[in-house]
Every structure is written in structure tokens, then in C-alpha cells.
Amino acid sequence: MSQQLKKKHKLIGTPFLGLWTSTLGLFAGLTTIVLYGVAGAEFKESLGLSGAMLGILLSSPHLSKAILRIPFGAWVDEVGGKKPFLILLGCSILGLTGITTLLYLYYPNEFDSSLFPLLLFFGVLGGAGGATFTVGAPQTSYWFPKNRQGYALGVYAGFGNIGPGVLNYVIPVLIGVIGLAAAYLSWLLFLVFATLIYAYFAMDSYYFQLKKKGETDERAKCIGNDLEQDVFPSGSTRESLKKSASNYRTWILVFLYSISFGGGFTALAAWFPTYWTLFHDMDIVSAGLVAAIFTIYGSVIRVPGGKFTDKYGGEIVAAMSFGIMAIGALVLVMSSAFYSSFIGMLIIGTGMGIANAAVFGLVPKYVPDAVGGASGWIGGVGGAGTLIIIPLLGFFVDTYGQIGYARGFIVFVILSTLCSLISIALRVNNKKLNYQGK
């Protein structure tokens, strides 16, 4: 029946293809959150930066990521995800081109602090790819019914988020083999290639295809329901942002996301290469490998995290995972040895990965009429947490010296505990509302 309906309306694509093209776009775009983190120690030494200034450079890609996630995530509700994806990836290509050009022209002999403003500019431009997260999340949601949202978003975010981890390892290896400038050129070529693949194969869900063919909103939703899709946009960017902003639960999810991913996972993905290099005295390749393990593991674990969310409920899973985060952060605070720090890193990565899946699994449940807008607020405002946390980690280093690399994790102990309590309160409140509704 569904195949006949697709053929009748000349619809193309499948949820599977929609999921994996979104995942590819996220994989490529999200690599830009470690635009400088992959070689943070090298930039710190060459430019003569303090811990706080290094934090600002490392967080520069996160500025555009945070700002652009709001409008671009909501824009999906109006035009679908493909166009926003391509614009963001195009900006990242321009930013990475700028950085690569500066490296070829000035590194190493003339690569000094005078280039810091330009590096910040290209970092901000290149970081636009990080905003693809809130584009791909609603784009993926609109391909799947509500009872498969945890699975779909878990796969999307789980495999898409390993991009920074892969780059955290690959780029340091390439730096050792072909040099810093050539390594960044290789990264640029990969980003261009991935963008071309996405442009060719990606497509928006049936609802958007039907709208482009002239179907009314009501008719497009009706046909979409017949094709087992029951999550639809509110219709316009402004309306989607307005609806989601007026829902207080959106802002609760914003805060939870800012700690689990926006100011948590992405901050540590950029910070860990420097942490392992300068605190544990590891070479850049080994530090990149260990940081990559964190990013890839914390990303892939989102897949079972999504399944847990579907089975047990996002609030319960979130409360438990934030508790795990707090334990991992506490281990990192108290540890200066490699093995105990490594274990702490894996524990906090476990909590962050599962929490990420739980938070976004709650979006269609709490804001079903404006998934795109909610994703924009959550990813944008929540993503701004990185702009605070990375410089804050650098501040601990400036204040306490070498041991500050460990003490800085107290920030995550406090915030993770608070998020766990908020998740429990969400669960209690939701049960109360359901009871009153009955």
C-alpha cells in the first residue's frame, strides 16, 4: 500500500535513506567543533596563549554553532532540512579554507599572536557546521513516527557525533606524517567530498515533498500519516520558534542539553586533546587517540541510549545518566594518574551520551507541534554553554596551575547533579499531569 501511494504521488526516498544522509551531514559538519582542539597544544605554543585565551580560541567555532542553530533548526519546519544543511556546510568549507590558507602562508615561522583575530574569525565561520545538529534532528524526526523517535534520533546523533572523535585522532596522526597545514587541507577536502555526497543523495521527508508539489498542509499530513509518519512541522520558522518558546518545557530541555551536550560533550571533545597533552604529558597523537575514544564512545552509546529512552522514558533515563556524569566528573577531579583519569573520562562519556539521547527523545513528547523550533532553541541556546565552559576550564588552569586541569571538572560535578534532580522533577510532574488528565 505504501509503495503504491509513493508511486502515485511520485515520492522518493525512505526513512532509512533520510536517516543516514542526515547522519552523514552531521558527521561532517560536527567535525568543526574541534576545529582548533585537535591541535590545541600546538596553537597555544605557537601563538603564546594563556589558558583562558586558548579556551576562547577553542570555543570560537561554538559561537556560530550556538547562534545559527536557533534559526536554522526552526527553518527546517518551513523548507525541510536539505537547504539549511548545505548552507551551513558551505560556510564551514569557507572557514576551513581560511584556516588552511593561513597555515600555508605563515606556519611555522610567522605564525604568531598577530594572526589571532583572523583565526578567531575563520573559527567562527568554520564552526557553522556545528549547527547542523538542530537541522538534522527535526529532519530525521519528520521521517519517523513518534514510537521510533528514540531509535532514529539515537542513531542520528550516535553515529553523527563520532565525527569530532575521528578527527581528534586522524588529524594529529596526519600532522605527524604530512605536517599541520597539509593535515588541515586533508580535512578540507574531506568536508567538500562529504558535502557533495550529501547534496546528491539527501532528500526531505514525504511531507515536504508533497508541499513542494502543491499539496495543502492538511492533505500532506494526511498522506504522511498513511505512510506511517505522524510528526509534522508547525508550518513556518517564526511560528515554530514562537510555539516552542512559549512552552516552558522547551527551556528545561535547553538547560539539560547545555550540560549534557552543548556545554558538556562538545566542550570536552575540544578540551580533552589539550588536557591529555598538557596535564598527562602525552604526545599529540596519543592524546588525540584518547580524546577520540571519548568522543566516539560517547556518541555511539547514544544509540542504545535512544532505545532505553523509548522503553523506559526520557525522564528516568536522563536522571540516571546525569548521575553517571557526576560520578565520572568526580573521578576526574580527584585523579592525576592516567588510568584513573581514563576511567573517569569513560564514565562521564557514558552519562553524556545517554543523556543526549534522552533529552532529544523528549522533544517530540513535550513539544510535538514545533519540533524544529524546539530543536533550534535547545541546540542554539543550549549549545552556547560551550562558550562558557571551555574558557572556565582554562580559567581553572590559570588560577591553580597544572592541577587546574583536574580541578576544573568540579563544574560538571555540580551541574550534572542539578540536572539529575531536574529530570526527576520532570518525571514527577509528568505523572501528576497524566493523573489529573485522567
Concise overview:
It holds the Pfam family MFS_1. This protein is an all-alpha fold and 438 residues long. The protein contains 23 helices and no strands.
Plain-language structure description:
With 438 residues, the chain is mostly helical. The chain has a single domain (2-437), classed as Up-down Bundle (Growth Hormone, Chain: A). It is built from 23 helices and no strands. The radius of gyration is 21 Å and the shape is globular. The mean pLDDT is 86.
Question: Structural class, from helix and strand content?
Answer: mainly alpha
The overall strand count is 0
Total count of helical runs of at least 4 residues:
23
Strand content: under 5%
* Major sheet: none
Features:
0% strand, 438 residues, 23 helices
Write the layout of secondary structure elements.
Elements: H1 2-8, H2 15-30, H3 40-47, H4 51-79, H5 82-106, H6 116-126, H7 132-141, H8 149-160, H9 163-178, H10 180-201, H11 206-212, H12 217-226, H13 237-245, H14 248-278, H15 284-300, H16 302-312, H17 314-334, H18 338-361, H19 363-366, H20 371-383, H21 385-400, H22 404-407, H23 410-437
Helix pairs in contact: 2-7, 2-8, 2-10, 4-6, 4-7, 4-13, 4-14, 4-20, 4-21, 5-6, 5-7, 5-10, 7-8, 7-20, 8-15, 8-16, 8-18, 9-10, 9-15, 11-12, 13-20, 14-15, 14-18, 14-20, 14-21, 14-23, 15-18, 16-17, 16-18, 17-18, 17-23
Organism: Marivirga salinarum
Family: Belongs to the major facilitator superfamily. Nitrate/nitrite porter (TC 2.A.1.8) family.
GO molecular function, one term: nitrate transmembrane transporter activity
